[in-house]
Amino acid sequence: MATNPFPGGNRNTAVPSDNGWDEYRRYVTTELTRLGTAVDRNALTIAAQYTAILVELAKLQVCVGRLQVKAGIWGMVGGLMGAGIIIGAWILRGGP
User: What is the mean pLDDT of the chain?
Assistant: First the structure.
């Protein structure tokens, strides 16, 4: 942890124009650099996670499409079975 940048450790104390400001300037520059690096690292992590989420979403969309096709086929088979039973019963009764 960096030392207190304020002379005398008091925030209300005026910053002298000589060596006190140079120390504070170095502290601020160091902190800004550190925070900028952390932001860049987090942005890369978020971008990688976003890409992974998009890949998984694409996989889910393919799976949902397959399930919709299967549901349509099974619905058609069920409808044809019902129609087949009705037609079979109609034929067994002797037609019209």
Answer: 85
DSSP state of 9: G
Calculate what percentage of the chain has a pLDDT beyond 90. Answer: 66
DSSP string for residues in 10-74: -TTSPPPTTHHHHHHHHHHHHHHHHHHHHHHHHHHHHHHHHHHHHHHHHHHHHHHHHHHHHHHHH
Domain map of the chain by residue range? Answer: 7-92
Which residues, in sequence order, are CB contacts of 31 under 8 Å at separation 6+?
2
DSSP, collapsed to helix, strand or coil, labels residue 87 as: helix
Q: Using an 8 Å Cβ cutoff, are 39 and 21 in contact?
A: no
In three-state secondary structure terms, 82 is: helix
Token code pair at residue 30:
């160091």
Structure tokens at 93: 């009764």
